[in-house]
Specification:
Helix content: over 70%
Shape: elongated
Number of helices: 7
Strand content: under 5%
Distance between the termini: 29 Å
């Protein structure tokens, strides 16, 4: 169940990474994110149809585990991207984005004592391992709301009474 979701999330990640130079990819990535929730919902509905005696909490748990496994597949794709394809482009774009006036104001509101140059230095010195750890945490935190959105509308199938 997690493979199609993980492939869609991985494709969403790649679309996001390349959307700076091709804005249409951002729309495609967003669409893939929403489609993945619908695909998970359909999978859970089919599971509930095949096993009508399972509780909704069991369906939610299955949805959460599916999202965690899809996130693991996405983490593998992110690792491949940052290790072999990125060549520092992501960190350079982040450093360039931090030079804007809007980011400076936001940084002063969030961390009043931090200096922008120090934050830029920290970000530019991040290793692939550091980035992947952050992505893993993000995917784990994202798994619960996505699994909840997919599992909420899943209902017990109606029984006709005919055999």
């Amino acid at each position: 169940m997690a493979l199609p979701i993980g492939f869609m999330w991985s494709a969403n990640f790649f679309c996001t990474m390349y959307s700076a130079s091709r804005p249409a990819l951002s729309v495609l990535g967003t669409a893939l994110g929403f489609i993945s929730i619908y695909v998970l919902y359909k999978q859970l509905t089919n599971f509930r149809r095949l096993y009508p005696t399972v509780s909704w909490l069991h369906v939610l748990r299955l949805s959460f585990v599916t999202c965690l496994l899809a996130g693991l597949l996405t983490d593998a794709a992110e690792y491949v991207y940052f290790q072999f394809l990125d060549n520092g482009r992501f960190l350079s774009q982040m450093a360039n984005a931090m030079q804007s006036e809007e980011y400076r104001q936001a940084l002063q509101q969030i961390m009043p004592g931090a200096k922008q140059e120090e934050v830029v230095k920290v970000i530019q010195n991040m290793s692939v391992r550091d980035i992947i750890i952050q992505m893993i945490m993000y995917n784990i935190l994202l798994a619960l709301p996505v699994s909840l959105f997919a599992a909420l509308p899943v209902r017990k199938p109606k029984v006709d009474g005919k055999l």
